[in-house]
């Protein structure tokens, strides 16, 4: 019984990071902070639990508490509507109703002003994010406009299409290709078509982003999967794809064996939760491909095996290699329209490129995940030098870096950013020496400091943790990622070769 209680501990503690709760990253719809923020703080005060009791006494305890896996048997029996959520929803409903009545009375008292105000708002207007709401507060008619925003945005939830949008352009739409972009694309094509591609020059050109048209072959080259010599590429691809499907024939049937049951079962649980808002990844055929890729990788790397989070790392490669055969946006594409040979090549290439990536960060996934522990500690030291005020703010409210940065390191920020942003980010990671390990640290530091104002505005443990797990990146695109990478490069230039400034 004690073991069962321990196993289910995270389910009963909705405030713990990673437990079942309405806390999501950029791949999931976030909570509306305008309605829930005050009530969450109020509920945290009512259910008074000493903050020190929340702090994990060890890494293993924290890892157990933040695991988002559950038993298959529990899925059918567990009620995912705990009383605390029902209370929260009823309070939000009452508050919303009261606000609507208040706004209605204002409309009746001042009909002329309300008419002129609403006429300024397009019929199809929907609020995009909490930052839009903040901007609207500064206008002369902010009270009424905010009320209209709430009524329009909450039922419609317009963010879902933007989450699912995989296009690597900004959310405002894809502009026509400029002369500069055409020149860059032509340079890429010249590099890729030369007899021996200059990989150093290719990395230099790829750092600010790779054009969509040449991204698949560029990623294969930068990951070390494809040789620089053009004459060897076709034979290499053929050999490696045959080798992968040889692994399938040799090992995949062993998923039914007892000693592989836990691995296969965990993969089977995680895959449906990979990018759940993108229809592409909910197709049975795509999920079968992911199962094979992850299972073969796990049994060929017994030192780590499969660890939650690795499933996310397949998706950028799969989308990029799929886009080579699909002209339209891929998020709604039906993969059954592709030939078997094309699907096999996408699957094999995704496996090998993911394997190359994981070769450089495998200590993130071995026992006790020492790579992640070191990176989180390095992030803490770096932030203490970059912005001591933010660092001391965390210490004051007893927020441990491991409680939010574990996911940043384990998933390479994929849970914090839309998939289109991850693809753009990986253009640079594959161009940087040790991009997924060393440079990622500086990207995380820049990402954290970007939200310093919002962090310093929060003045309790619960508010800080909710903020750090719901950072508003849902509308990010190339421009925001470019600025983030520029700041990360600046930090790397300042601190990477300056150990006396880096350490305490």
Automatic annotation (TrEMBL):
Disordered as annotated region, ranges: 105-125
Record bears the keyword NAD: no
Source organism superkingdom: Eukaryota
Domain (Rab-GAP TBC) ranges: 209-433
Regions of compositional bias (Polar residues) in chain numbering: 114-125
Keywords for the protein's UniProt record, in alphabetical order: GTPase activation
RNA-binding keyword on record: no
Name this polypeptide is given: Rab-GAP TBC domain-containing protein
Species, as recorded: Pipistrellus nathusii (Nathusius' pipistrelle)
């Amino acid at each position: 019984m004690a073991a069962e209680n321990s196993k289910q501990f995270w389910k009963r503690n909705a405030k713990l990071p990673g437990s079942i709760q309405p806390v999501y990253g950029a791949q999931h719809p976030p909570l509306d902070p305008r309605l829930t923020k005050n009530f969450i703080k109020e509920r945290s005060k009512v259910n008074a639990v000493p903050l020190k009791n929340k702090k994990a006494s060890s890494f293993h305890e924290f890892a157990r508490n933040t695991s988002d896996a559950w038993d298959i048997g529990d899925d059918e029996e567990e009620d995912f509507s705990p009383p605390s959520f029902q209370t929260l929803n009823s309070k939000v409903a009452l508050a919303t109703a009261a606000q609507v009545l208040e706004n209605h009375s204002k409309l009746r008292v001042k009909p002329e002003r309300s008419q002129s105000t609403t006429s300024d708002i397009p019929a199809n207007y929907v609020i995009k994010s909490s930052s839009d709401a903040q901007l609207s507060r500064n206008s002369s008619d902010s009270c009424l406009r905010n009320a209209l925003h709430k009524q329009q945005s909450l039922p419609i939830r317009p963010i879902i299409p933007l989450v699912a949008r995989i296009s690597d352009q900004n959310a405002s739409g894809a502009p026509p290709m400029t002369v500069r972009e055409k020149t860059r694309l032509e340079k890429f094509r010249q590099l890729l078509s030369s007899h021996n591609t200059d990989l150093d020059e290719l990395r230099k050109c790829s750092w600010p982003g790779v054009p969509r048209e040449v991204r698949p072959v560029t990623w294969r080259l930068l990951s070390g999967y494809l040789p620089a010599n053009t004459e060897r590429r076709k034979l290499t691809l053929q050999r490696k794809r045959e080798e992968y499907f040889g692994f399938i024939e040799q090992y995949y049937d062993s998923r039914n064996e007892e000693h592989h049951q836990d691995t296969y079962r965990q993969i089977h649980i995680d895959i449906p939760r990979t990018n759940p808002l993108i229809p592409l990844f909910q197709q049975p055929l795509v999920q079968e491909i992911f199962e094979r890729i992850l299972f073969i990788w796990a049994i060929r790397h017994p030192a780590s095996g499969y660890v939650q989070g690795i499933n996310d790392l397949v998706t950028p490669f799969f989308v990029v290699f799929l886009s080579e055969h699909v002209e339209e946006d891929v998020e709604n594409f039906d993969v059954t329209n592709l030939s078997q040979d094309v699907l096999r090549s996408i699957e094999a290439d995704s496996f090998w490129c993911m394997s190359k990536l994981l070769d450089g960060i495998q200590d993130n996934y071995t026992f006790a995940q020492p790579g992640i522990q070191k990176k989180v500690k390095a992030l803490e030291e770096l932030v203490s030098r970059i912005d001591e005020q933010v660092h001391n703010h965390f210490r004051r409210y007893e927020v441990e870096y491991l409680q939010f940065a574990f996911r940043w390191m384990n998933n390479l920020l994929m849970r914090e950013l839309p998939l289109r942003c991850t693809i753009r980010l990986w253009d640079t990671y594959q161009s940087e020496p040790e991009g997924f390990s060393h440079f990622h640290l500086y990207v995380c530091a820049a990402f954290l400091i970007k939200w310093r104002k919002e962090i310093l505005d929060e003045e309790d443990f619960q508010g800080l943790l909710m903020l750090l797990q719901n950072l508003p990146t849902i509308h990010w695109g190339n421009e925001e990622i470019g600025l983030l990478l520029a700041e990360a490069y600046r930090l790397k230039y300042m601190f990477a070769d300056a150990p006396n400034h880096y350490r305490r």
